[in-house]
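Exercise 4. Each item below gives a protein and its sequence. For each, produce the structure-token representation.

Item: Phosphate transport system permease protein PstA (Pseudonocardia autotrophica).
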Amino acid sequence: MSTGTEPDRTEEVSVTGTGLETPASATPTVLRRKGSLPRWAPLGILAATAAVMAGVVVALGSGIGLWLFFTAVVYAVATYTASRVVEGARKAADRLVTVIVTGAFLLAMIPLVSVLYTVVSQGWERFDVAFFTNSMRGVVGEGGGALHAIQGTLIITGLAAVMSIPVGLLTAVYLVEYGNNSRLARAITFFVDVMTGIPSIVAGLFAYALFALLLGPGVRFGFVGAVALTVLMIPIVVRSTEEMLKIVPNELREASFALGVPKWRTILKVVIPTTAGGIATGITLAIARVIGETAPLLVTVGLATGVNLNPFDGRMATLPVFSYYSYAVPGVPREPFLDRAWTAALVLMLIVMVLNVVARLISTFFAPKTR
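Answer:
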């Protein structure tokens, strides 16, 4: 029963084989569903493209680089065309972007894999016990090791970390918790940005000039190199710590203030522990960043052939400088020096890799619990 104000809700139904069919104009339009390429299609297209381009490159007498380039370009075009015909324009564009991104990733991996393979294959020759237990004192040919350089690297980098970490942490705390976008905070941020981009040789020249004014020209010892590395580490520690402190929710600070906790204690007990994992990760990566610097240590520390564990007296050897001199100024015969240079580079790369793994572990174990 319907009233005079209710609209008529009767719907027309199309029934095949009766006289109740609706007009063609009233029939809803059915979208045609596109097909999809089989799962093996991308690999099949890639294999076919590589085979065809191999024949073309052989006919032209070109090398493997041109073959890889032609294969990538033709594969992208063939994949897009096949997907456009079968799957439609949207899916074809998605496949094309996937091919481009994957190609960019593989292109970036080529030099990384090449460096890794070269260092490991060349440095494995002298990766033995003698390399880690002997120095170069009295060695003019075969034999010897880099014990003095490993110890010097660890001592100088450790001193740099001891000096730069407190300064970087306190600077970041001031910028986030006390700066309030003041003129001083903006000036500090500007100079930190400038220090982040300075060449490492400039840090070495600064440290050398500073101690030359204090102690006289020609001064070279481990602490000078540690100061140079500190100049490079501080902006990295400041930036990483600042970003970690910024992500702490203000609600945590306000809850602490509501309980009557002073600001300094809130920072120590609430803010910093919340981001301890991220701060430790940034510090570890900063150490990994400066441990392989060569230019500032060439200027400030120099090279030594024996063990020197006192960073305040005399020259010290470091792995980057030891590797550089062994490769750039080899003795006679050249092969033992080159082998030691590659092995020193391998050891340095392993140290950096260990530091990165430690950073990942710290980030995992000290991350805030979400459950």
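Check: DSSP finds 14 helices and no strands in the chain.
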